Amino acid sequence: MKIAIVCYPTFGGSGVVATELGIALAKRGHEIHFVTYKQPVRLDYLTHNIHYHEVIVPEYPLFHYQPYELALSSKLVTVVKKFEIDVLHVHYAIPHAYAGYMAQKMLAEENIHLPMMTTLHGTDITLVGSHNFYKPAVNFSINKSDVVTSVSASLKADTLAIFDIEKEVHVIPNFIDMNNLQKDFENCKRHLMANEDEKIIVHVSNLRPVKRIDHVIEIFNKIQKEIKVKLLIIGDGPERENASKLAHELGIRDQIIFLGKSNEIERILCFSNLFLLPSEKESFGLAALEAMAHGLPVVASNAGGLPEVITDGESGYLCDIGDVDAMAERGIRILKDEEKLAKMKLNAEKQAWKFDIKEVVPMYENLYRKMSK
Ligand code: GMT
């Protein structure tokens, strides 16, 4: 099939899922057209069956806000006509589903039918989309999508509770390509990050308030009182400065390394021991799944879809949102006991296999086929 994918081309989970899905579909013989404002970060140039179309929004002084939706829907119309696209798949409702609907309408004027799937990722529902500024438009464009999917059952429940949805919402979890993980231990540079006798804890996110980086630091502070340990924080965002300040105040700044945005997460996960994700909201927690795939148990909050990804007491521990003491205690429990750590490492990997790409991509393919009939 010829599939157009619209997503955010950044390090965020929705963009990563969209890109990995496009790559997987291309490998399975589909022709994939990414339509977005920048080359997606995980997309290599020169990939067979993959095309990238840049949405350009020229700066015009009259506009206080440049009209991205307008440029995106126009680009979609051009791409769909030129490449005879069968299906449009938009990731993240805002503003992609809205722009997709406009493209559909414009194409219908020329008797071209373009079915649209909208995949909800989390913040488009629970944080941004539920705001009254956007809600009517988000509600409208979800209902106008031919197929709606959500990355967890929890997000589906939130969507149905927050919006007035007439469409069936299909749950298709996020996924990982377990057979193509980079486990390049030759290149494992553990010694650059920690001493032999230190354990390594990792947190990966966009460091937005919802991720509770302050709790990451507080949990780490309690763990480091009991165990020799380092904390690696990967990603960048608005809470970075506050986190660094808090670490200074607690006198643990030199035990924490802020690595910024990275395309080498796998090379870091390969030598790490524990992953922390104490988010206030998390529709799925792709970063946790990636960590588990590399054998890291996860200590997380029981927010949103995290209980669908992590099994409490097996592949990690789930604690109440904000319960820093409990999360620290679970972290210590895992890291202090080598036998437990080894067992949980295996469980984490085993659990990640349930989300292997081979299980999940066919779910999307089935829906594409049904839509394009
Ligand atoms: O976590 C973020 O703030 C980024 C956001 C995104 O849209 O890129 O992530 C959301 O989508 C990911 C992929 O489906 C999920 O794994 C994340 O849990 C979800 N984030 C939230 O719900 C806060």
Automatic annotation (TrEMBL):
<dbReference type="GO" id="GO:0016757">
    <property type="term" value="F:glycosyltransferase activity"/>
</dbReference>
<dbReference type="Pfam" id="PF13439">
    <property type="entry name" value="Glyco_transf_4"/>
</dbReference>
<dbReference type="InterPro" id="IPR028098">
    <property type="entry name" value="Glyco_trans_4-like_N"/>
</dbReference>
<protein>
    <submittedName>
        <fullName>N-acetyl-alpha-D-glucosaminyl L-malate synthase BshA</fullName>
    </submittedName>
</protein>
<dbReference type="InterPro" id="IPR001296">
    <property type="entry name" value="Glyco_trans_1"/>
</dbReference>
<dbReference type="InterPro" id="IPR023881">
    <property type="entry name" value="Thiol_BshA"/>
</dbReference>
<dbReference type="Pfam" id="PF00534">
    <property type="entry name" value="Glycos_transf_1"/>
</dbReference>
<dbReference type="InterPro" id="IPR050194">
    <property type="entry name" value="Glycosyltransferase_grp1"/>
</dbReference>
<feature type="domain" description="Glycosyl transferase family 1">
    <location>
        <begin position="187"/>
        <end position="351"/>
    </location>
</feature>
<feature type="domain" description="Glycosyltransferase subfamily 4-like N-terminal">
    <location>
        <begin position="11"/>
        <end position="178"/>
    </location>
</feature>
<dbReference type="GO" id="GO:0071793">
    <property type="term" value="P:bacillithiol biosynthetic process"/>
</dbReference>
